[in-house]
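Quick one, T. Sequence first:
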Amino acid sequence: MKEISMEFTDPALLPIHEKLASGRRLDFEDGMTLYRSDDLHGVGRLANLVREKNCGRDAYVVRNEHLNYTNICINRCVFCAFSRDQGEEQAYTFDLSDAEDRLRARLHEPIREIHIVGGLNPALPFSYYLDLLRMAKEIRPEATIKAFTAVEVEYFSRLTGLSVDEVVGALREAGLAMMPGGGAEVLSERVHRKLYPKKIGPARWLDVIRTVHGLGVPTNATMLYGHIESLEERVQHLLKLRALQDETGGFIAFIPLAFHPENTRLSHLKATGGIDDLKTIAVARLLLDNIPHIKAYWVMITPSLAQVALSFGADDLDGTIVEEKITHMAGARTPTGMSMDEISHLIRSAGYRPVERDAFYNPV
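Structure tokens:
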């Protein structure tokens, strides 16, 4: 990286700037220094150096649609406001005709990515998921089907007795092209035991993703932050993702997910603030030197803060979404979707150039 003269109110950032300028990789202590620094502007400028080196003033956006096919889930994680038991109020499952109706309702829009995730519903056979993919691909042959987290894939393996390799092979044959990065939460066994003990833990999540990448299926990566995790656990999470990316090269983007406590069993906690959100995006951009894109997910941090995040390391605002359910059931006040014109305006007014992309960040 070309060295640029910088002044910081926090002198602890100077050695990090020198590392970046000389092309050296940041380590755990650097991550902790960045998180603990009171110089938010300085942390942001460091992240922006990397962001602009990678993609200049471009900011990506995709025309996408979310399909959350069921909220019935056997895991019932402590932090989740989305999941329900069978028969509980607000519990739902789309049958294939429901899902088809929802996808056909948006056919007037040039959707390029369909994002399909849901709960672990024991009433659904594996054939349901294959039929769901086939149906989505038939309706939207031009769109990339990005479906099922590592948690869902591992569940399909247990449900069928098939290996993860065999499950992924069947899903690919039905239309799967990419997987989202959900279910990682925080890659800490302590947090796993306390908040999502029925869900696969950190080692198994990494192992499933390693297998998926080895089969040639790219994924995203996430971190759910702002609950009971420590800063140390956040940094360790990022470094575990970086190590796996060194090994597989299969991550396309990283998405920090701000925890929304409303309507969860952690409703006593305060929601994340803008400083924490921006700093988390910046630290991710600086530590994840091998993951190409960092996403400011406007659904979780608000469109206005996502604008600011473009100057703190983020290069992607996700997309139009169309009826996101999971975060909104946790009390999110953001829109459930935005138009391409609205998102493009956000990007331009922040001083960046909107670039419409497909699921793999190819401009369209």
